[in-house]
Q: What sequence folds into this?
């Protein structure tokens, strides 16, 4: 290669780097969870989530969670919450442990846990959220 | 600008184009829906969704829907389906109409509709899926 073409070549490498970096992103793992919401605590739960604590959000991000939404719905007179999130890390259990060990997250959960009414399987495991089974996915 | 730098300059423009094109993508609208699943039809519903018809998937994509997943969960002895999807278009109602008018999609729905047990509000509106309320979102 003629050295006078080196700058052009380097720009080309950078361009391709950006392009493939965006196009070939590591596909995330999807998680969808369900729990109950106590009707008398629904307003407080909404208030908390309308202005979530910055330290809690930062810790969620640090655990490689993105595109995380929680949706509420009444079914047969009961309120339920459905969480959807995408995990982009490589060690989900460790990332969840790190989140659970964070003092600010623990303080947050001391506010949110009493609002929620876990399903029997989660309650039996001392957890809040129950897993669901994915039956369809279209990227 | 010295013309001998033109190729480098053009490469730079292309690199920036790819980069900002990826970073500044139009943010999608999230939709999360709920419906019931008849237990005696669950196996057939799973079968259908394990090998969805290509024409149906193509029509969903054409309606600017992406990242579409359906999750199943039993609550109080009943089966429920939770759908999460992202809409990237600019006219949701029209895109839904176009999907509903597609003969292949109509044939698909003639298979899937009888598997589902809509909640009362959806049933009253002649629909399958009920809306939920988003209470939290972290990109």
A:
């Amino acid at each position: 290669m003629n050295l006078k073409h080196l700058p052009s070549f380097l720009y080309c490498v950078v361009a391709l780097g950006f392009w493939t970096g965006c196009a070939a992103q590591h596909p995330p793992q999807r998680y969808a969870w369900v729990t109950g919401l106590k009707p008398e605590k629904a307003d407080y739960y909404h208030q908390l989530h309308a202005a979530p604590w910055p330290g809690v959000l930062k810790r969620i991000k640090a655990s490689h969670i993105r595109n995380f939404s929680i949706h509420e719905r009444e079914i047969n007179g009961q309120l339920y919450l459905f969480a959807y999130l995408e995990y982009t890390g490589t060690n989900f259990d460790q990332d969840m442990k790190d989140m659970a060990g964070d003092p600010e997250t623990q303080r947050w959960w001391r506010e949110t846990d009493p609002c929620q009414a876990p399903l029997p399987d989660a309650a039996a495991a001392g957890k809040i959220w129950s897993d669901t089974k994915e039956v369809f996915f279209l990227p």
User: Anything to note?
Assistant: The first helix of chain B runs from residue 6 to 23. The two ends of chain B are 41 Å apart (CA to CA). Chain B touches chain A through 50 residues (CB under 8 Å). The domain at 26-131 of chain B is CATH 3.30.70.100 (Alpha-Beta Plaits).
